[in-house]
Specification:
This protein has 402 residues and is an alpha/beta fold. Helix content is 41%, strand content 9%.
Amino acid sequence: MAKRPLGIDVLTAARQRIARVFDDFPRIYVSFSGGKDSSVMTHLVMEEARRRGRKVGLLLVDLEAQYKITMQFAESIYEMYADCIEPYWIALPIHLRNAVSQFEPQWVCWDPNAKDRWVRKPPRIAITDESLFPFFRRGMEFEEFVPQFGHWYAQGKLCACFVGIRADESLNRYRTVCGRKAMFEGIKWTTWCGETLYNAYPIYDWRTEDIWRYLGKYDKPYNKLYDLMHKAGLSIHQARICQPYGDDQRKGLWLYHIIEPETWGKVVARVNGANQGALYAQETGNVLGRIKITLPPGHTWKSYSQLLMASMPDKTREHYENKIAVFLKWWADRGYANGIPDEAPPKDEAAKKAPSWRRIAKSLLRNDYWCKGLSFTQTKSDAYEKYLKVMKKRRAEWQIRI
């Protein structure tokens, strides 16, 4: 889909979009992370809220093992806009992806059982009562909590969540805005999230340069972590603030010990594999399966995959064996009854058009826990135990040996 200029600057367009949401939605909240994009969006939304004398929700999901400077900035934003927000600073035990460990492929932030190892204490404004939200379950996934919070906040009324994503950041974010989806009254920069909840992306067409131009021109406060990232050698396009242990985000772990060494020491003690991720997440090769992998001497990709699984903890190995069994069964029903090949043309593997044991090996090396490289999606936490029981029966019926 080609880009079509609107004939106005992106700031004017964003303000018009935000005003439209205020006109049409009785319930509004902002998803805030402390990053540059969500900060700009928050400033713009609060500008409109003050103009109208209206209060909006401000949601921040505190992931515990984050930069101290980011959390200090977030606290300043909550104070700055105290007159026009309903504060929701979440510090609850939520499951997070940990792509730097096979022993702890997921970790629980604010885990009450690890209180003596918490990276820091939650601020006074934080919500720590697990009984406050009727939908909350200890250890639920981050990806589950966020939409369920939205439905809870909506209270059955038409509700909009402002999300600070930009189409220039990635193909997935571009598709979020421009892909086929249900929208509010045909407006492309909105997405229906079920029931009465919609996401709104008022700065979807901003470039990184627009973000910093706005912050500088209007002298808006921003997270000074970006200044430190710049001093560490990152460009404005490379500097990002996110949960640093994910499959893509782990490559930024090396910054921790440079920017906040006192925080890094606590992170290493708290999150299994953090130090290994800092050392190797940017390396190309077999250590974490990044970009190009090679086959060890004397192995096929199948035998190498089997070796990798044999080296895993029992629980992790069973998880991967279940995923791989489904993968093999799916392709067996589609022309590979005698088994998948050891490798296929790299372009077909990359496009997920052909099965191979090399694809499996790469997922294992990458610690690709949900096996997205094998075309799987994440399993909801409340359904996972049921999934394990079902898979035990299915593998016995299929008689697939891995």
